Amino acid sequence: MFWLSNEWGFAWAWAVFLLPLPWFIYRFGAATTANKALKVPFYAQIQQWWIEDGNRLNKASKWPIRLLILTWLCFVLALMRPQWVAPLPPEADLGRELILAIDLSASMADDDLGEQNRLQTVQSFLTQWLPTRQGERIGIVVFGDRAERLFKPTRDMAFVLDQVKALEIGLAGGGTALAEGLAMAISEGKNVILISDGANTHGTLSPLVVAEYARKQGAVVHTVGLSALTEEEKLAEQGRWNESNGPVFDGALDTALLKGLSKATDGQYFRASDAQALQDLGESINQMNQIEMQQYRQRAVTEWFASLWLMGFSFLMLALNWGRTRWK
Description:
By secondary structure, this protein is of the alpha/beta class. The chain has helices spanning about 20-30, 45-50, 60-80, 120-130, 155-165, 180-190, 205-215, 230-235, 255-265, 275-295, 305-325, and strands at about 1-5, 10, 80-85, 95-105, 135-145, 145-155, 190-195, 220-225, 270, 300-305. The radius of gyration is 34 Å and the shape is rod-shaped. The chain starts with a strand and ends with a helix. The relative contact order is 0.15.
């Protein structure tokens, strides 16, 4: 790629060496004998344009030659594939979407995460964290007995924060239709954060089937498990849990399911056992987001060769028509 500037360049700049080809053909292609002569389809007609009144070129016959020169110039430029490369868009125009799928089941009223109940803890976290998500449209899906889209993705952060503050337990019923909530979130965007404190207890969809569908759609699902650590989990973290005692009890939280959902879609699972853990996971997701943004910020390329081919063909037709009209 040969760059003329930050935005303009030629993909096949080597084709510029074809520009003098017609001159070489004219200068060295004509042979002294008929057997060695280079034959071109319009040679006799072109010769008439050049020769008039005793080998003198008159002014009118110059125009077909000029048009042929323009034709060749357009064709060579088209072969060089001129490209306009758009500047990198600002982060606010990247077009990414972040979809939050939030559990509003009855168990979100538990206050095991700190001074506030689980939903209030999530609300406090989101009102501080969401404004850091620059360049994304935010949408929210809630689920209880059923899944509901709270609002479509938007960049109106004030509106988003107002809606977050207005969330209420039981808004979509008291159960946990986790799979339906995830399915609706994926239908809204491919970057999903699912926040839940339980297991899939309602709905007809299978969470793992939904996760497989998400993977095929290219969606990435990060899952957040809300629940204070059980005594067994605390012992396991300290390395004091004996596996012979059986699996670690994680309360009503289906840790295995949430881990499976994130793993199936190349996302990550986060355990939020208190308010500080939520803040920490927000920083982790932001770091992942920076890498994703760098990969996403690609420059659009516009090819101009088709326009040059059309322009060159128009010049050629005009030249041939000019010569045919003049020498009838």
